[in-house]
Automatic annotation (TrEMBL), chain A:
SUPFAM superfamilies: MetI-like
Keyword Transmembrane helix: yes
Keywords: Amino-acid transport, Cell membrane, Membrane, Transmembrane, Transmembrane helix, Transport
Taxonomic placement: Bacteria, Pseudomonadati, Pseudomonadota, Alphaproteobacteria, Hyphomicrobiales
Name assigned to this protein: Polar amino acid transport system permease protein
Segments traversing the membrane: 20-51, 91-110, 193-215
Residue ranges of every copy of the ABC transmembrane type-1 domain listed in the record: 27-215
Signal peptide: none
Automatic annotation (TrEMBL), chain B:
A matching Pfam family: BPD_transp_1
Name used for this protein in its record: Polar amino acid transport system permease protein
Cellular compartment(s): Cell inner membrane; Cell membrane
Main location class: membrane
Source species of the chain: Pseudochelatococcus lubricantis
Amino acid sequence: MMYGLAWDTSTPLAFATSILPILLIGLTVTVKAALAGFAIAIVMGLVFALLRRSRIRAVSWTTAFVVEFLRDTPLLVQLFFLYYVLPDYGVVMPAFLTGVLALGLQYSAYTSEVYRGGIDAIPRGQWEAATALNLSRLTVYRDIVIPQVVPRIVPAMGNYAVAMFKETPVLSVITILEMLGLANMIGEQTYQYLLPLTMVGLIFLLLTLICSAAIHQLERRLPKAGVPLK
Amino acid sequence: MNWLSYLPSLAQGALVTAEITFVSIVIGGLLSFAAGIARVEGGRIPAFVALCYTEIFRGTSLLVQLFWLYYALPLIGLSFDPVTTGIIGLSLHAGGYGAEIVRGALLAVPQQQLEAARALNFSRRHTLFHIVLPQSLVEMMPAFGNLAIDTLKLSSLVSLISIADLTFRAQSIRNLTLDSTTVYTLTLIGYFLMALVLAAIMRLIERLVRRGAAFPKAAHA
């Protein structure tokens, strides 16, 4: 019994239908974690990408190193690092927040590369024209660069969002009860792992297929050259 | 405790990580080519089987796959030791992603070349192995480099099915000493260094492939 929902192990079908609501509660945690993590990744990725373009060498090189380090080390170890090390320095936060932060940081390294690619794709002539017109850096980014970059990077960002969604089960190791964590607990209590784990796999498969199809559709509808300027 | 005293145990774990990663990359690479070629060149049935394989392994989480292999397979009579289970999971996962790389690169070969090959009455096998693959191999290599790094990173998940890899050792030392900062910093550095070495190896292979794929002498004659 979990969340006040009892399970019925008499037949596989009854078992499946009785644990489905429990797994769906876990799914909401999974989705929340993925959305929150992705929000961090979108913001931090842009910050990293802009810092990397800084004219001060120390800033751009440090950023490049940090991004590379985040990209080349496993999410699981980063997660343990945040979960065990931060409290030693007096930073105590709920496990969910730690998990979301770890997901967001790891993926911000990926998204910063996406932003970088998008920004690099802006023709040099536009930068030169902006300089010739004496536009401030803020105006250039806000009115010229960002509107052109965003539609180009939406598909890549969408793919990372799906990838992140698929990595959220890792959060179960720091006691977050998302879908996989719940499936394991059901397994421990009923000695039936096959069905709960298979159901988790199928739910993931179904959702990622739907999301991928949605991204594909979105990609088709986006303007090819960028958002038209005012 | 001195941080140096952690190193022997962590190094042993790193060795296990390196072995599992290496074997998984090799098997995953073979699977990638098998499934990727099947999707493009195989008939309807092999292409469909390969499609199901890639979608299932790309669409579900690796950790779910590993737990499934670890907990669920023994219940239907198939049981392997944890290391084999970990390698099977990682290889199948890498193969699913690699198959998409292979498929993309095969499809990127210009259509005219295939028409030319047909006009010259080359067999399909000859076209695939002597015209399409040598060119697309070069295109695939950067993506395979990323996949190799991903496999290294994801190999940390096998610690959760009780394999004594680098992450597992770090967890054990941490539980013993509570010295989280030192242990996890060393572990992160360990993975980072292994990723740098792996990236260098993949770049070396890429260069070799690039040289090998340059026009064979006969083609100039």
